[in-house]
Amino acid sequence: MSKIRILSEQLTNKIAAGEVVQRPASLIKELVENSIDAGSTEITVVIKNGGKSLCYVIDNGEGMSKDDLLLAFERYATSKISTVDDLLDIRTLGFRGEALASISAVSIVNAISTLQGADTGYELRIEGGRFRDVKPHSPEPGTSISVRNLFYNVPARRKFLKSREVEFRNIVEIMRKFAMIHPDIRFTFIHNEKEIFRLRAENAKDRIEHLFSSEYGKNLLPIENKSEILSVSGFIGNLNLVRARRGEQYFYVNNRFVTDRYMNHAIVSGYSGLLSRGEFPFYCIHLSIPPEMIDVNVHPTKMEVKFRNQGMVYQFLKNSVEESIKEITRVIPNLGKFSPSSYYSPPPIPKIQGKVDTQEAISPTSDFQERGKKKDTSKQAEIPMHFSHKVDQRKWTDRAERFRDVYKPTEDDTFQVDVPLYQIHNKYIISQIKSGLVIIDQHVAHERVLYEEAIESMQNENWKAQQLLFPQILELSVTDFSTLLEIFPFLEKIGFRMKEFGKNTIAIEAVPAGMKWGNEGTIIKEILDSYQDFGTKETSIQSKVAASFSCKAAIKSGDSLTEEEMRNLVDRLFATKNPYFCPHGRPIIINLTIEELDKRFERT
Ligand SMILES: Nc1ncnc2c1ncn2[C@@H]1O[C@H](COP(=O)(O)OP(=O)(O)OP(=O)(O)O)[C@@H](O)[C@H]1O
Ligand SMILES: [Mg+2]
Prior knowledge:
The chain is of the alpha+beta class. It contains 17 helices and 22 strands. The chain is elongated. The longest helix is centred in the N-terminal third of the chain and has 18 residues, at 164-181. It has helices at residues 9-20, 24-37, 66-72, 99-105, 155-159, 164-181, 204-211, 214-218, 261-269, 310-325, 340-343, 442-459, 478-494, 520-534, 541-553, 563-574, 594-600, and strands spanning 42-48, 54-59, 108-114, 121-127, 130-137, 142-148, 186-191, 194-199, 220-226, 231-237, 249-253, 256-257, 283-288, 294-295, 306-307, 421-424, 428-433, 436-441, 465-475, 497-500, 505-512, 589-593. The protein has an eight-stranded mixed beta sheet with strand order 5-4-3-6-2-1-7-8, covered by helices on one side. A hairpin with a 3-residue loop joins strand 16 and strand 17 (428-433).
């Protein structure tokens, strides 16, 4: 007797279902895809208990005849392809004829459909893959499919479902992905009788705003590009929409949401170094490509595609983002020509407070660090995208350099040394310039200053160290300790003095003069963390150390400053090579021109 058996269709369907339907969200994905393929202009999704007890999708698409309704739930039954060649020319979201068969194998399905123009509809009931019933139904445009009790007959899988909240969140994400790329379709989404969203047909930008918030609308840059073969459209977020977590990256190929690390890399690298490691921009990018240039049949839930010419697509995407991102640098202010005396003069005499000996300290740093340790909110600095900005002709360094050509400074862009400086919300410094006013972000400004001073001290004259009264003992992990050994010489040049003090333990004996640290140990740890975070992005150890140091040592948003401290900071800022961007690429200064103000007050 043979040991090998051919499995029953019912069993194979159940096995196949394991691939297609993993959770309620994948079920919703399949049903909504079908509705979109059917040409619907309105899709309603109703779920209960995170989709675990009910997923119900109603559309107004082309519908199905009685025969098709019956066939639709058979395995490999599809209206979307018929020959092998068709696989190379897929223009629909579905093509395998598997989804409905898989879904109905592991749940209780009720489907009602009316073929467009027909005067009768049909209702079909399937339980665990077994047809129960088909009967006429009053004609209602489109198709509605309800799926109850997912995995009721596969307890092992039901156990793996997550909590209602988690499953719900997954569905929200799926719905968002569809709604974003189809702003012309009206979507309604209801969970446990509560309306989550109801979206009318609208333009793509409004759709993003409605799916996220109005803040998004304000911070989007359009992306639009075409080559002979490819075209791209959509929106990318400016730096205000950068998050510390992945998750708001939406990349579509021929209207299909796909995950693709390589193309994601192309898009992110189009930000031209404005992002650091661990920073994730928002984008919603749609790539149109001839269907024969991709293979969509490479992933069980159709979440990936294979490009026949990856390199070309990569370059195209990167260039397109670069073009669009140029807009970001328009926020660079027209501070223009500073008078040489206030500007190119040697750095001002350090203003040191507290117990530090002025003779000892060669670095101009005040006691900024001691003040309030509030959370740094400078990252949320508003960037007024609609202002037109120019920039001075001084030599630009690093990331902003490439954009220099875009700006033409005017004679009016002189920073006036003697005008008062104001601090608002312990966060921004405001001052007048000839052409209007400037707003400086105190944290990033100080960060830029310290960054350049740190680099300088590593290359030329070392920063003076300030002895601590009591050395601080700091125990480190093995990784941290070996990182510390790697960057130790650079930290020394900035002014740290440390000694090994037992296994993976150090004693911090001195810190850069002029800084009041409070907890030196924490700062060292933070520097190590952020150094490791930079990965290979920063070009040299030196700049990585400098960037980590300056970020941690800079005054925080929330620290209150005296006018003298502000002036000291501003002077030092304008003595840096690049007063416009912090080492992480965030803007430091924005300006508001008189013309802009006049326009806003409707004076013109
Ligand atoms: N909402 C709908 N409106 C009209 N026809 C539908 C709808 N849902 C399914 N169908 C029909 O049923 C067929 C089977 O659907 P199913 O989702 O199982 O396969 P598919 O979409 O062809 O391929 P895939 O398995 O990749 O999704 C479809 O090809 C389509 O003809
Ligand atoms: Mg389908």
